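Anyone up for a design puzzle?
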């Protein structure tokens, strides 16, 4: 379900998300693994199964599944990866695990702080476009 605030013609206005507290909060919860993803909800005994209810019903809906595996979001995932690579060609060689580490904001030598801020905008765009949380 697409959030009503975000219409199709606004998809590319990525700066819209820069000060969006709602999306910031969702992303923060994902990073701290207390989000509405089923693996997180299951961990806190809020639901009875951690499995994905989208396309991959035999998989747990973890951060990794949501960002890297779930077939429902392939199109948006490809756009996310292309957007990230557009910032720096060397990012083409990043593995999925390295991307997840970046998404989770783990300290590493791969990404400059200024680049992180741009990547976060793309991640928040992914969160909006997948419609999983809003
Ligand atoms: Zn899935």
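Challenge accepted. My sequence:
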């Amino acid at each position: 379900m697409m959030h009503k605030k975000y219409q199709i013609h606004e998809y590319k206005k990525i700066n819209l998300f820069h000060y969006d507290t709602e999306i910031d909060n969702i992303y923060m919860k994902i990073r701290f693994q207390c989000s509405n993803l089923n693996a997180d909800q299951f961990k806190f005994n809020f639901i009875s199964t951690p499995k994905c209810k989208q396309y991959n019903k035999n998989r747990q809906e973890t951060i990794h599944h949501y960002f890297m595996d779930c077939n429902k979001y392939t199109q948006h995932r490809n756009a996310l990866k292309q957007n990230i690579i557009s910032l720096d060609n060397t990012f083409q060689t990043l593995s999925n695990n390295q991307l997840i580490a970046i998404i989770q904001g783990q300290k590493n030598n791969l990404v400059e702080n200024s680049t992180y801020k741009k990547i976060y905008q793309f991640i928040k765009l992914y969160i909006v476009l997948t419609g999983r949380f809003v």
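A detail worth pointing out: Residues 34 and 44 are 8 Å apart (CA to CA).
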